[in-house]
Amino acid sequence: MEMRKETGRRKRQHPQSRRAAGVMFAVLLAAVCLMNLVFRGRLFPEGDKREFLTAARANISLLGGKRESNGIFKGKDHYLLEDIVKPDEAEVSRTLEHMKDFRSSYMDIPFYLMLVPGAANVLSDKLPVFAVTEDQTEQFENIKESLEQDFVWVDVEKALEAEKKQEIYYHTDALWTTQGAFYACSGLIESMGLGSQKHPSLKPYAVTGDFHGALSKDSGYEGGYREPVYIYSEEDAQDNTKVVVSYVEEGRKTATLYDSSKLNGEDKYAVFFGGDFPLIDIKTAAKADGRLLVVKDSYANCLVPFLVPYFREIVMVDPRYYKKGLGHVMKDYEITSVLFLYGGNTFMEDNKIRGVLTDDETE
Amino acid sequence: MGNKKHFGEEDRVLRFAVIAVAVLLLIAAIVVAGRMGNLREDSAAGEEKLEQMAKMNVQMNEIRIQELENARDSQDDQDTENQDPGSQGSEDQDTGDQSAEDQDAQSQDAENQDALSQGAEDPDITIRDTEEKKYTGNGDTGESKKKEAQEKLFGRTEDLPDLGRGLELLLGFLPVILILYHVFPGRLKDVVILAGGVLFYAWGEPVYIFLVIFSVLFNYMSGFLIAGALKEKKKARRRLIINIVANVGLLFVFRYGAPVLKGFNDIFQTEIRYRELPVPVGISFYTLQALSYTIDVYQRKVKVQRSLLDFAVYVTLFPRLIAGPVVKYKDMTEQLRGRKTSLADFGDGAFFFIRGLAKKLLLADAAGRIMDVVFAMEPGEMSVLSAWLGCLAFMFRIYFELGAFSDMAAGLGRMFGFEFRQNFAYPYTAKSITDFWNRWYISLVSWFQNYVGLPLSGKRKTVGKDIRSILIVWMLIGLWHGASWNYILWGLYYGILLVVEKYITANAIQRIPGAVTRFFSLLLIMAGWVLFFSPTPGSALAYLGRMAGIGGSGLTDARGIYILMSNVVLWFTLIFCSTPLIFRLYEHFIYRGKRVRTVMNTAVYAVLFILCIVYMV
After folding, report:
1. B404, B357 in Cβ contact below 8 A?
2. pLDDT above 90 covers what percent of chain A?
3. Is residue B542 helix, strand or coil?
4. Which residues of B touch A132 (CB under 8 A)?
5. Residues of B with CB below 8 A from A242's CB?
6. Which of A49, A196, B252, B427 could in theory staple to B439 by disulfide, Cβ–Cβ 3.0 to 4.6 A?
7. What is the DSSP letter of A326?
8. What are phi and psi of B364, to 5 degrees?
9. Average pLDDT score over residue span A224-238
C-alpha cells in the first residue's frame, strides 16, 4: 500500500485555480442548461437531427486522423463512401431460395438480377488510406453463382468500373447518379436483347445543383457540399416517350416520371417518381410489347426512366412498402419479364424481398 | 495596491474570455472547413425540361396509349397494317374529352374490381403478415443475440451504463440537485442529497425504490440489534449472520438468480421456471456498503448510527453515481455530519468531474468503438495484430470507463462535501501483479480484504490460511463483477498469480529491472482481460491463441493496419493518459515558475467540458 502514497493523493490545485474552476463549471453548466431550455429541442434534438453536433464531432475527430463516422468513410475528392455491409449468410441464402422458388412458377418468362455495387467497391481508390471494406465483388460472385440457372445476371460492376472517371456516384449519398444508371442500363438492355440504345438523342440535364445526400447528414462530413442531380431528356421534352404513371395505392396519376416539387424539399433525389412508393404502374406510348416488373429499392428510381422506351408497361414494386404478394401483380399486369434491381447493401440487409415472394403457395 | 489587484482580476477575466472565444472560433472553423467544397451545376435547362414535362396531360397521354393498345388489338385481330398512333392522337383530339371520361369510368371499374379481389386476397395477406412477423421476429432475435453477446463481452452493463441518457442527467438532474443543495440550509441539505440518491436508483426501474428503502431500513434496524447484543458475543454473531445472509441473499436473487438457475437448468437438464428480473441499478454497490456498516458495528469499530437520515444518505450516497468507489462505513462516518463546501471545493469537484467525463466520453467510448470492430470480426479472419489491438482496446476501455466513474463520483462528492479516496492509481504502470492490485479498483479490493480476507486468515496467520484467503477473496472479486464463469475464472487467475508472486517469485521480481517486470505484468494483465471479456473459457483460449498466431489469419492484415493507423492519435493519447506522465507534465505546465496559470488551467478544463458535451449527444 506504500505505492498509493507515492502516486496517490493528488496535490490540490492552487485555491485561486480551484475557485476559478468552480465559477467556470457553474457558468458553463448554467449556460448549457439555459441554451437547452431556450432552444428547446434544437440544440440537443432527438434522433437524426443532431446535424451540427454530429458534424462537430466528426470534424474534431478528423484532427485525430479518424476518417470514419457512423460507418461512413470520408474519402478523397469529397467522396463519402458507405461501408460495405457484411451479410448474414443464412438470411441471404434464404432470400435467394425464395427468389428461386418464385422464379420457378414462371419458367416461360425471363428474370434478370441487377445488383449495384457500393461506391466503396467501385471507387475503392477514393477510400481513405489504409481503409478496407468487405469484398463486395466476392459477395456478388456468390449470389451470381447460386442463381445462375434461374436469373440472368446483369454485370453492373463491370459497366461502372469502365466509367469510373465519370461522376457515377453521388459524393454525399450512397446512391448512384443518373449517369451511373445510364451506363449500367446499356448492359441491361443488351442482356434483355432489346438492341442498343434506342434514343441516342437523350442528353443529361441538371435539374438542381443543390443535392445534399443522406451520407453527409449521417456522418457529419461535407456538410456544405452540394451537387447536381441529372435527368436525361430529349432536346425537346415533348419528344420523350409519353407515359401515364399511376401510383396505384395512392390512387393518383401523372403524365411525367418526375416530381419537380421535390426539388424544393430535403430529399431532392425524390424528383424521380416523387420517391419510393409501394406500387407504381407506368403505361407508355412506346412501340413495344413487353410488360416489365421491377422489384426494387431506391437505386431503380433513376434507372427506370431509361427503360420506358422499351416497354409498353413497367410496374415498379418496392417490397419495403408493398404489403401484398407479387403473384397477383404477375397475373393482373400480364408481366412478360421481371427485373430485380437493388443496391448491394440493401439487398444484403433487406429481407422484405422474401415477404412479397411468399404468397403464391396458397393460390 | 488594491486598485492594481482589481485590474489584475479584470485582466484575468478578460484573458479567459479571449481564450474561450478563440477556442469556440477554432471549433467553428473546424466545422466550417468541413463544409467546404461543392460541385454546383447550372440547372436552368433541366428545370425547364421538368416544367415542360410537368405540363403534360394525363388524359392526353392515356388516350394516346389507349389508341396504341387498340392498334395492337386490331393488328392482332385483323392483321392490318400498323397505324401511326401519333397522328391519330391529334386527329381525335375533339373527341378526347369524351373518351377520357370513358377511360375514367373504366378505370373506376377496374379499381372496384381491384378492391374486390383484394378482399378475396385477405387470407393471403394475413399469411404474408405472419410470415413477415416471423422474419422481423428473427431480426429481433438476431439483434438481441448481438446485444446479449455484447453484454457478455462487457459484463456488468447494468453497473457500467452508457451515458445514453447522460445529458438529461447532466442538464436536468445535476443542476437541480446542486442548486437545491446549496440553497437549503442545514439538515435539509441531507434530505436533498438523499432524494437525489433515491431518484437516481429509480432511474432504470422505479419499483426498485422499494428495494433501496428496504435495504436502508433493514440495515438501520440491524445496526441497533447488533449493537444491543454486543455484550453477548454469540447473540451478536447470530444477528450479524442473519444480516449478512439477508443482504447477500437479496443481492444473489436479483443479481445472480436468473443466470444461476439458467446454468442449473443447462447442467442438470431440469426446467425450473424463473423470471429474468432487470438488475437493480447499483445493487452490488449499496449492498457492500450496507454490509460494511453492520460488520463495522459488530467489530466495535464504529458507533451505531442513530440518525436514519444520515444512514440513508450513506447507503444511497448519491455522488457515488452508479459505479464509483465502494466506500467503507468507518471512512464515511465523519463525513455524514457537518460537511462544508466552499467555492474552492466546488472547483476541485469540477476538476475531477470534468476529467471523469472526458475519460468516459473521449477515451473509453473511443476505445470501445475500436473494441467493437475487432470483436465483430470472424475468428478466422482476425490477424495477430487485430487480436492484440482488440485486447488493448478493451484494456483501455475498462480502465478509462471505471476510472471515469470514479472520477465523476469523486468530483460530485467534492461538490457535496464528501471526499472519496483515490480508486485507481495508474494501474497499467504496475511493476508486478501485487502492485497492480494496489492500484486497480483500490476501494473494492480493500473492502474485500478488510471484510473477507482478514476474518478468513484469522489472527494466527499460517501459509495455508493465507493462500486460502487470497484465493477466496479474488474469486469473490471476480464474482462481484457478474454471474458468469469467466469472471470467477478471472478472479481465480489473479488469486493464483498473487499467491505465486507472494510465495515464489517475490524476491526474484525485485532483482529484475523495473522495465522488464512492468512489461511482463502488462502481458499477464492483458491475458487476464481476455479471460474477463470472453464468454467461455474455450473462447478465451481461442482468443489467446489468436494473439499468439494460432487460428487467426496471419501476423498482420489490412484491417489490423487500418485499426492501428486510423486511430494513431487515439492510441498515443490512451497510452499517455494511462501513465502519471500526463499528470506531471500538466502540473509542470500550470505551475511553471512561481506563477500559477489560472486562466490557462480554467480554459483547458472549459474546453474539455465543451468537447464532452459535443461528444455526449
Report:
1. yes
2. 52
3. helix
4. 558-559, 562
5. 56, 60-61, 64-65
6. B427
7. S
8. -60, -45
9. 88
